[in-house]
Amino acid sequence: MSQSSLSFQPTRWTLVQQVKGNATDASQALNELCSMYWRPLYAYARSFGRSMEDSEDVVQGFMAKGIEKALFSAAVKEKGKMRTFLLTSFKRYLRDEHAKEVTIKRGSGKVEVTDIAAEEERWGDEKAIDPTVSFDKRWALIIVEAAGEQLRQKYKEEGKIKLYNALIPSLSGELTAGYQDIADDLHISLSAVKIGVHRMRKRYGEMLRAEIIETITENEDPDDELRYLIAILSE
């Protein structure tokens, strides 16, 4: 299947372009971008030594300022990875806010930071990790989760959600049930199960690569970025 035939949600760079458009589109796009990327920022702040409350405050403040100042309108695809742009902007914000000794109260931003408890639990296993590595790990998880959701939606659109549910464990390892058991349960042939596993892995790889392409420049190699993200998740 070609990349162009895949059904994707609005891409990262499409949203960035919308930030530069009319006020309604810009506001919606900014909220969507901030909702996507608050987790790596929170992980960076926690690993940098800030408390849970302070990390939540500073991420809210950064997003609120980003919305007010149209942060992502400064992102240009040709100039570098979105991952690098966001972290550099956040570092600059932390430096400037520290210098001003400004405290942003939680809830003042227009984007709600949710699932703090879940992020705190994840971060608890990463206390000794360098802040930038912690940021990149969370960024990698966003890419993996986005590709996974695209895959699920594709199977749902095709009316094959039962096949998806049966075969999805194959992406992270061996299937919990044997191929023949799956074939019997779904009333399909054994060869259909084997082909289904192959196709799912191929589709997921295409979607993962497409997600990565949406966060790098045209001159950068998506396979290099993929190798880096896989390596950072394996550490």
How far from one another are the termini?
A: 32 Å
Major sheet attributes: none
**Got a strand count?**
0
Q: Roughly what fraction of the amino acids lie in strands?
A: under 5%
SSE series: HHHHHHHHHH
Percentage of residues in helical conformation: 55-70%
Helix and strand content put the structural class at mainly alpha
Could you describe the 3D structure shown?
- There is one protein chain.
- By secondary structure, this protein is mostly helical.
- The chain has one domain (3-234).
- Helices cover 67% and strands 0% of the residues.
- The protein contains ten helices and no strands.
- Helix 2 packs across helix 6, helix 6 packs across helix 9 and helix 9 crosses helix 10.
- The protein is elongated and about 60 Å long.
Essential attributes:
disordered N terminus; single chain; 235 residues; mainly alpha
Short summary:
With 235 residues, this protein is mostly helical. It has ten helices and no strands.
Summarize the SSE layout with pairings.
Blueprint: H1 12-19, H2 23-47, H3 52-68, H4 82-100, H5 116-124, H6 131-157, H7 161-167, H8 179-186, H9 190-213, H10 222-234
Helix pairs in contact: 1-2, 2-3, 2-6, 6-9, 6-10, 8-9, 9-10
